[in-house]
Amino acid sequence: MLNETDRARVQAAIRQGETRTSGEIYCVVAQESSEYLEVPLAWAAVAALVAPALLLAAGIHVAAPDLAQGWTAAQMSDSAEAAVRSALTGAILLQGALFVGVAILTALAPVRRWLTPRALKRHRVRRRAGEQFLAKGLQATRERTGVLIYVSIDEHMAELIADEGVAAKVDGQVWEAAMARLVEGFEAGRPAEGFEAAIALCVDILAEHVPARAGDNPNELPDSVVLLP
Fold first, then answer.
1. Torsions phi, psi of 23, nearest 5?
2. Taking the mean position of all CA atoms in its chain, how far away is CA 21?
3. Is the entire prediction scored with pTM above 0.85?
4. What does each C-alpha distance from 200 to 24, 82, 109, 135 come to in angstroms?
5. pLDDT tops 50 at residue 64
6. Angle between helices 73-107 and 38-57 (to 10 degrees)
7. Which residue ranges make up each domain of the chain?
8. How much is the CA Rg of the chain, to the nearest whole Å?
9. DSSP string, 113-129
10. How many C-beta atoms lie closer than 10 Å to residue 21's C-beta?
């Protein structure tokens, strides 16, 4: 996360950049965008369901009684039933133990993050960014020129959402370079530099499409960085 010095640098970059544009830049940093509670359960279910098939593929089987031992038909039936019941009980206990063990293992944060599909992470980051866009009132600016820069640290992902006054004029792909610089800064342990570089690129884009009007450029949103737990 950002310390006080980092936050002051980011706020200064926003304040200075907004003098060139009528756009409003707002920054939010989250440690993680979701708890991904379904991931440990999904992996545990897969392990429990696949284990019996793997055991069969490995050649483990239940042996039937030897007919040459002079058993009666009733004895054969009872023995087969007991063998099947024992095999089913063993399989159920194995599945239960695997489900609990894998669920506990994959619930550990580093393991869970590693096993969570990247597409799911991207979806959750985008959803959380959209929630923050609305929660912070970026859709309420006078000319609909609010721009949210959202960073999710544990996922190593960043998302930018531009309100309709900007999105109608700017191709969404032009923000990718700014988001890449932002993520690089966080991964290198220099989050303030990453933000400064990303904000500078965003300001260049905004100044081209929604430039500041002389004498009419109110600061409608706080020049702050919100840190989410």
1. -70, 155
2. 32
3. no
4. 13, 74, 34, 25
5. no
6. 140
7. 4-34+117-228, 38-115
8. 29
9. HHHS-HHHHHHHHHHHH
10. 24
Q: Which of 227, 225, 201 is nearest to 23 (CA)?
A: 201
Cα distance between residue 196 and residue 149, in whole Å: 12
| Of residues 46, 149, 58, 53, the one with CA closest to residue 99 | 46
Q: How far is 208 from 73, CA to CA, in rounded Å?
A: 90
In degrees, rounded to 5, the angle at the alpha carbon of residue 221 between the alpha carbons of residues 226 and 166 is 105
Number of H helices, E strands in the chain: 8, 4
Strands (E), the chain: 24-30, 146-152, 157-162, 225-228
pLDDT in tens, 74-88: 554 666 567 667 767
Architecture of domain 4-34+117-228: Roll (3.10)
| Residue 192 CB-density burial (10 A; 0-12 exposed, 13-18 middle, 19+ buried) | buried
* Residue 163 CB partners (closer than 8 Å, separation 6+): 138, 139, 141, 144, 145, 146, 147
